[in-house]
Amino acid sequence: MDFQLTEEQLMIRQAARDFAQQECLSGVIERDETQTFPKEQVSKLADLGFMGMMVSPDYGGAGLDTISYVLAMEEVSKIDASVSVCMSVNNSLVCWGLERFASEEQKHKYLTPLAQGKKDGELYIGAFLLSEPEAGSDATSQRTTAIDNGDHYVLNGIKNWITNGNSASVYLVIAQTDIAKGSKGINAFIVEKNWPGVTVGAKENKLGIRGSDTHSISFTDVKVPKENRIGEDGFGFVFAMKTLSGGRIGIASQALGIASGAYELALNYSKQRKAFGKEIMHHQAIQFKLADMATKIEASRLLCLKAAWEKDQHIDYTLSSSIAKVFASETAMWTTTEAVQIHGGYGYVKEYHVERLMRDAKITQIYEGTSEVQRIVISRSILK
Ligand code: CAA
Predict the structure, then answer these.
(1) CATH numbers and ranges of domains, the chain
(2) Is 377 in the pocket of ligand 1 (CB under 6 A)?
């Protein structure tokens, strides 16, 4: 076993750290306040090759490993989780699924610009459309239908809480093609946002990750060419589950970054703030909080890296990605809450960043499978 990062991995981590400090920190409070999508930041991430990190250079990607992706996600998430969720969805839920399961034609047409994050010089990213008003955790209960109509499908329905909903050019849409077949009657389709019948709903007014672009998307008689179905007929649910297993590594790393960002802020604050005649870091109550934060964060990091390593080794990582996500997201919620506590009254106001990190942490326990869904996946795996 080797815990040493390679030169390349260290370089990627440093590049992500520099990017987050230089490009994301300034304006992060305002973007949160005004719910402004970080277009400029995402565009620069694309220029760095971070929107298709693990995609082969044959399809416009950076050809990096999943460990590098975890390292980069942690660094960006320390500063701005609204930027990192956009990065995570494009990398793990969109590009990975296409590279692994799409046809050569689909890859050349869609994956190459998505991995570059640019087409004709403009931002070009994707979104993953599984959740519905009545199908969140219960993902097999899809109400969106895609009816076979010869050379195309006719898509109708509504999808909810879609990250990159308005900023994406390409949607991977999960829809029911044959309700009688249950999860085997579900397919995944590549749908372009500008096709007739596609409507983007209002932006959600969220508790956290407020810069990220979350919308409902509705489809009314959208004609989807047959060649835009991903994989064999009936493959859509397995496509979604396999894609989400990798996505969960991304969100676990996002949670790790939010936790470590809050920890670093609390550590620095405890060295400066004085109470009862000394810096608060000299009080054991603070020392023990910091010690517990450091311990849980290190455990989260190791779980994320293990899941990433398994993915890179082509070992089944379904269990390890769920374990990493549930542990890292709960660590993020706990750590950010304690970081606010260490900051006292200052922690409750926006300038000190920790209240934002606390709000941002919450979503990591909800999206890409709630903590309860992760426990379903984990318990099924250990009890089988
Ligand atoms: N790999 C391959 N096949 C899989 C699989 C996997 N990881 N998981 C399930 N399957 C297969 C099963 O083997 C089963 O096949 P058979 O019928 O042949 O046995 C089929 O799929 C149905 O699976 P289940 O019976 O396990 O389905 P279920 O209804 O019990 O649901 C669940 C299981 C784990 C709860 C699943 O529904 C789930 O993960 N739900 C959460 C969905 C989710 O994560 N949503 C997030 C939305 S996306 C998002 O948040 C993106 C964003 O914008 C940030």
Answers:
(1) 7-123 (1.10.540.10), 126-234 (2.40.110.10), 242-382 (1.20.140.10)
(2) yes
